[in-house]
Amino acid sequence: MFQNKVVLELLSKYKSVWALLHLQALGSWDSETYMPSSGLNTRGEALAKVSSLVQDLLVNKDFRKLLDEAKEQSNLNDAEVGLLRLLERDFEMNEKLPKAFVEKYAKTVSESQAVWREARQQNDFKKFQPYLERIVNLTIEQADYLGYKDHPYDALANIYEEGWNTKDIEKYFSSIKAPLTSLVKKIKTNSQNTTDDYSSLKYDIEVMKRVNKYALELFKYDNSVIRLDESAHPFTQEISIEDCRITTRYPEESWGSSLSATIHEFGHGLYSSQINKEFEFTPLSFATSLVLHESQSRFWENFIGRSKEFLKQIEHFIPDLSPEIKQIYSKTGIEGVYKYFNNVSPSLIRIEADEVTYHSHIMLRFEIEKALVEKSIKVQDLPEIWNHKMNEYLGVVPKTDSEGVLQDIHWSMGSIGYFPTYSMGTALSAQLRSYMENDLGGLQDLITNKKYVKIKKWLGEKIHLFGPTYTMKDLLKKQFNAELDPSFLLKYLENKYL
Length: 498
Ligand code: MG
Description:
Elements: H1 5-33, H2 40-58, H3 61-71, H4 78-96, H5 99-121, H6 125-146, H7 152-160, H8 166-190, H9 205-218, E1 226-230, E2 236-240, E3 243-248, H10 255-273, H11 290-304, H12 308-314, H13 323-342, H14 358-373, H15 382-394, H16 420-440, H17 443-448, H18 452-462, H19 472-480, H20 487-497
Parallel strand pairs: 1-3
Antiparallel strand pairs: 2-3
Helix pairs in contact: 1-2, 1-3, 2-5, 3-4, 5-6, 6-7, 8-14, 8-20, 9-10, 10-11, 11-16, 14-15, 16-20
Bound molecules: magnesium ion.
Magnesium ion binds near residues 264, 268, 294 and 297.
């Protein structure tokens, strides 16, 4: 795969970076799963130090020289070109950010997360406010260091989705805003089913663990590569192509969200584990496009996990979840289960939102983030702005900041510019579904016949195999001669819910 001598030399130099990133990934997975809580004090320092070592290894004269030399080579293959593109990007980002800034930033976000947790628990925005102000200021500084053409948000968008800018995101949201708002209204007036029997019921966590495991087994997951654990916020951590950690959670009164989270993270894990194994030890071993990544998780979560065909396959566990759940199930059967997983209703919490209203939650966050970094709004006014926008887009207003502006961890981590990838990834999943059905026939039939291996193989060949060799835009062009097109999402939602 990698043949060019200069590229090989570069890769052998890169291996130290790779090793540090590998162990950094393991360290952060551990801190979210099994580390005793006081370990956080030292782990944060250790991870920050590793980042700084990576920066030293990348941003130095020898590495730069070799990278320039490699870029001048002729006859490079696609993997080699992709590799150099990623290294250039890494180099640039690391070079532009002064060391003192990186350290200050890392320290601030590590402190802020702890404060955010407390503030959310105590419903005390004022407590978090000075930290968020610091984060917003540092983020503006970061955008200035990284550079941008039209808007500081461009620099941030590009961190999470290579080559994307504010205009791309605005264009995307403006094409879904009006149709989705009118769809929500139509569903509300059409809907005969507003009772959501299964919500707010306790369940047996041990049974739920068996359901989650069974779902992964149905998908023929490879348990020598993907490992499932528990964490407060479900996430996926790629350690290497053959070592992927996914987590789920067991919220007290929502067995559905435990299953959905498991399937969602499986989609992420599958992506990282189906990258070409020859990319191991190189920058191509980690998938970097968050839009592509989220398209994979949402594909499994929404199109498979919420389908009646799949739910029938785990149906036999439901009566064992609890006596109350058994009672509802005996009355409403699979239809009740299906409605529970597909109920559309505007709600306060993003991660519990349905397929239709989800995008409004993201749009609101994008608009706020953009306004914050262009300094047209102030952090102190966020609770009010948040509630106002919730009312405008979803018709619901949080009673507390905990279920409003304080609900997400992202801003406390400094991840400003990240949210749009959630919505765009979901839109891309609908587009990929359509392409897959052209090739393999209807997804419902594939699920009914448990052809999960066939689905995995298609996703592997079309998307996963390449890892980050191409940017998201270039991969869509190469594989489907297409660009991100939200009309697939709108069509899918209209067909399903009207
Ligand atoms: Mg995700």
